[in-house]
Amino acid sequence: MNQQTPIITNIKPSTAIRHDYNSFSRLCHETQEPVVITKNGEADLVVMSHEAYQKLMARQRLGQMLSEIDRDIAAGVPMRDFEEVFDSLQKRIEHA
Is the pTM of this model over 0.70? Predict the structure, then answer.
């Protein structure tokens, strides 16, 4: 699987937060992308909205789970039957 490193296009000086937090916050929420904060012209921090962070962490957890499953399949670990899993999920949804 070929993954490309995302290119961060939002770069702001640290003064952007100090001088106009509301606009900076709005940028983070509207773009849902990380913003690089520079200090003395050098990248210092990366900031993103809480929602964007939660989505990033969920994708990371999903990727880890899929990697574990791939390793199990490669090792020949027996898998559960699709129908069994689907029925189990359907029961959990109905009783939620």
Answer: no
